[in-house]
Amino acid sequence: MKEGNKKLYSPVVIKEIIEKYGFKFSKSLGQNFLIDGNVIDNIIEGSNIGADDGIIEIGPGIGTLTQKLCESAGKVIAIELDNNLLPILEETLEGYNNVEVIHGDVLKVDLNQLIKEKLEGRKVKVVANLPYYITTPIIMKLLEENLNIDKIVVMVQKEVALRMKAVPGGKDYGALSVAVQYYSEPKIIVDVPKNVFMPKPNVDSAVIMLDVYKESHIKVKDKKLFFNIVKAAFGKRRKTLLNALSSGIELKKEEVLAALEKSGIDPTRRGETLDITEFARLSDEIYDRMNNY
C-alpha cells in the first residue's frame, strides 16, 4: 500500500516510514508528528476550508495534515525546511495534484511573492503545526508583512496560545498579546495534550485561530512608536509605567508623565493593566510630544 493511502497519524505507519527512509527526528527543528486523527480533523474544521481556498502550510513533516488539507482546499503550498523529509513527502502526497512542496525556511521566504505567484485570486489561509522554537517569529512575520491572509490556524505551545489571547491584568498578558490582537482576533479552538505526538514533547499544545483584520481596528499615528511603547511597558513588568517608559523610550520623564496624565492614565499603573486602546491613546500623545512640542 502506498503511503498516500495509509493513515499517516498511525504510530505504526510513522515507524514504517522512519525505518524505510532512515529518518531521524531533529530536536533542533522541533519535529513532533501528530498521532491523533481527531486533532487533525479539529484543525481542518476550525480552518473552515473551502474548495476555492489557497493554503500555506508551514512544516508539513511527513504530510499528515497536508493530505487532509489537499482533500479540502483548492491549492496547498507546503514549506518544509528539512531536506530529509522531501522524499517522504514526494511519496505521501503522490496522489494529490493540488499541492506543491517548497524547500525553504519560512522566515526567509517572500510570502507576498509566493501568494501572488501561487495563490492569486484565492482566499489564503495559513494552517500548520508550527515548530515551537520559532513560533513567535513565524506568527509575527505572518502578521506584520501585510499579507493577503484571511486566517491563521496553527498548533502552538499552549502557554503561547494563552499569551496570544490574554486580556489585561493577568500573568499571560504581555507584548505578544498586544501585537497579535493589534492585527487579529485570536480564539483557541482546542487544547491538545502532549501524548498525541511522536516523539512526545515536554509541553501541552493548543490550536489557535487568528482571524486577521483587513485593517487594524486600532489606529495609531506611528505604528513603530506604538510597539516600542508596548515593548518598553512590558520590558520591566514590576516598574510603573512612568519609570518603565522613562527608561525605555527617548522622552524625558516629565514629558512621559505629562503624556500619561493627558491620556487619562495613572502613571503608577503597570503595563500589564493597559488595554490596547489605552496603549494607542498613549502612543499618539507621546508621538505629538516628540514631534510637535
3D architecture notes:
By secondary structure, the chain is α/β, with parallel strands linked by helices. The chain has two domains: 3-212, 3-Layer(aba) Sandwich (Rossmann fold); 223-292, Helicase, Ruva Protein, domain 3, CATH 1.10.8.100. 41% of the residues lie in helices and 18% in strands. It is built from twelve helices and nine strands. The chain has a seven-stranded mixed β-sheet, sandwiched between helices. A two-stranded antiparallel ribbon has the order 1-8. Helix 9 packs across helix 10. The chain is elongated. The model has no long low-confidence stretch (mean pLDDT 93).
Key terms for this structure?
alpha/beta, Helicase, Ruva Protein, domain 3, 2 domains, 7-stranded mixed beta sheet, 41% helix, elongated
Total discrete domains: 2
Quaternary structure classification: single chain
Q: Could you give the count of β-strands?
A: 9
Distance between the termini: 74 Å
Number of helices: 12
The share of residues in extended strands comes to: 15-25%
CATH topology of the largest domain: Rossmann fold
What structural class should be given to the helix and strand makeup?
Answer: alpha/beta
Give the helix/strand layout.
Layout: H1 11-21, E1 33-34, H2 37-47, E2 53-58, H3 64-72, E3 75-80, H4 86-92, E4 99-103, H5 111-118, E5 123-129, H6 135-144, E6 151-157, H7 158-165, H8 175-183, E7 184-192, E8 197-198, E9 205-212, H9 223-235, H10 241-248, H11 253-262, H12 276-292
Parallel strand pairs: 2-3, 2-5, 3-4, 5-6
Antiparallel strand pairs: 1-8, 6-9, 7-9
Helix pairs in contact: 6-8, 9-10, 9-12, 10-11, 11-12
